[in-house]
Amino acid sequence: MRQKLVRPAIQNLSIDFNGSEVHDVEPQLLGDLFYGTPLRVFGRYGSAGSVAVTLSGTVQGAPWNETVSMELPEKDLGNSEIERMWAHKRIGRLLDIERAGQGSQREEVVRLSEGYSIVSPYASMLVLENDGEYKRWKIQQRNATRIVRDRAARDNVQQ
Questions:
Q1: FRET pair for 159, CA 20 to 30 Å: which of 16, 42, 95, 135?
Q2: Residues ≥6 apart with Cβ < 8 Å to 66
Q3: pTM, two decimal places
Q4: pLDDT < 50 positions in the chain
């Protein structure tokens, strides 16, 4: 158990995508991978198709890499929560940049927070009793489309 916690399985892990237009990968720096620890990488892509994903790093001082082929779907209507996970990771990285004094990331954090319904230091969520209250106070429900799509995706998965 101690060995799993102290010594990484793969050091200086990196990822490369070949064959598709993959961008906005989060986290940008993967670091070390420890035994029993999952690796979650989120990103966006321009078009569907096959992509070769290569993981590289060092295992016990020797270079290591592994390439696997993946199919990126045109649309995956059953996993809308993955978009929010990507946005959450991106917001966290942008806030880290800001905390390190490397420039304001406020506009992008607000854009992502509002677009993906994520609470951040620059965006909060207002919950009112019903749609009539939003109209009464002239509050635009920016996440209404996302909520409908997320509910449809959840219903699709449950079926």
A1: 42
A2: 54, 55
A3: 0.80
A4: none
